[in-house]
């Protein structure tokens, strides 16, 4: 056994409890693996790559997990690490997490994002297409804007632009759902609703959009927000729960004022 | 029109905002309730408190309407709370080994269903104790003092007020968020006011079992 002080030369020895599940029907279970000599300079996903190489050498099935860009911009990676979505750090996706955050001899539990709306497909891979369906319900601007116009043709107040950009940082990873004790998707939907509600391009469909997106969110089986704000703490992009409040008032307002389709005639 | 209201009520945000709105009205009720109760301390024989009770009684149909309103408020708040609790459990059928804190949860925010259920049980005891009891002979003040002078009665009331305090700690800022009124300029004030208000209401209510147990209605300041 190497002591904590000389991990630099020998690397980290870890005990991993990894969630293994053959398919969506399987009930799944934790399996225990030990890994030796993991460099503290490698990322969490590189550590899993090494685990998979080891499993392949032993003739066993590698662990399936989602990843793509590995630089915190695509929203593919997930994982709940020791009970925390995207691991222990703030504003850090799992792919940006370093093994130096762990110590030699540490035991690490690795689970998929858990929610009814995110069914596990295999091991740590979940189906997060519920988010795509919420976007398809209204998270876009349907007017054809043609070719890019002059930058200053459409004046946007600085504050609105800043807030919209903050909301638009959402990469749709689903950590908000994973970290929420109620498995609610309010931070994701709040960010998407806010981002368009704050900009002039989003105005024509503003009311219809929030009603349709919230309806789809509820249909997907996400939980109800309890204002616990763990989503904000887990979000790799630091999206503020202010976006949830904005969605709440957009929804309340739209519920009161949206006109049924084809009824927008006015007069008596 | 009706279907639109129905759709609103079935939606997650509709349920949350209605829970927030009923919660706000219930907080206002608690403030009125505790301020009225303080009249128990005004004299040694409970005359002021009994007069206050008689005044409410004299409102007749208005009092009945107010009680009906309270039943609706409590009923809606409790029903929505239970419904969302069950839905939230269903939203995560396979639990985590241990969902660890990421840094924003509080004891109060994580235990709203639990503290809510304790308050509901207390509410039932409380209504049986004082609303359904017959106090025509000794008067309400004497009944209250008698009940709360007993260690068991005082204990139940005191502990329940602890749960109420924890529930209210989260309640106010949560309802402000649910109703969509959040702005960085007044967020700190909302948080502080909510916590102070919650603790103050619960603490004032908690003085009744403590002081009744200690002085049995013979207030040292009278
Ligand atoms: S892999 Fe793209 S954000 Fe992590």
Compact overview of the structure:
Chain A is of the alpha+beta class and 268 residues long. Chain A has helices at 7-10, 44-57, 129-138, 158-168, 175-179, 186-197, 206-219, 230-234, 242-257, and strands at 12-20, 29-38, 80-81, 84-85, 107-111, 120-122, 125-126. Chain A starts with 6 loop residues before the first helix and ends in an 11-residue tail after the last helix.
Shape of chain B: globular
CATH architecture type of chain B: Up-down Bundle
For the record, what is the CATH homologous superfamily label of chain B?
Fumarate reductase/succinate dehydrogenase, transmembrane subunit
What distance separates the N and C termini of chain B? Answer: 58 Å
Hetero compounds = FE2/S2 (inorganic) cluster
For the termini of chain A, the CA-CA separation is 84 Å
State mean pLDDT of chain B (0 to 100 scale).
95
Task: Trace the largest sheet of chain A across and list its strands.
Answer: 2-1-5-3-4
Number of structurally distinct domains of chain A = 2
**Computed CA radius of gyration of chain A, to the nearest angstrom:** 22 Å
Which structural class do the helices and strands of chain B define? mainly alpha
Query: What's the CATH topology name of the largest domain in chain A?
Result: Fumarate Reductase Iron-sulfur Protein, Chain B, domain 2
**CATH top level label of chain B:** Mainly Alpha
The helix/strand order of chain B is: HHHHHHHHH
Q: Which secondary structure elements does this structure contain, and how are they paired or packed?
A:
The complex is a heterodimer of chains A (about 270) and B (about 220).
Chain A: H1 7-10, E1 12-20, E2 29-38, H2 44-57, E3 80-81, E4 84-85, E5 107-111, E6 120-122, E7 125-126, H3 129-138, H4 158-168, H5 175-179, H6 186-197, H7 206-219, H8 230-234, H9 242-257
Chain B: H1 2-10, H2 12-37, H3 47-58, H4 61-90, H5 107-110, H6 112-131, H7 140-149, H8 151-178, H9 187-215
Helix pairs in contact in B: 1-2, 2-4, 2-8, 4-6, 6-8, 7-9, 8-9
The structure holds FE2/S2 (inorganic) cluster.
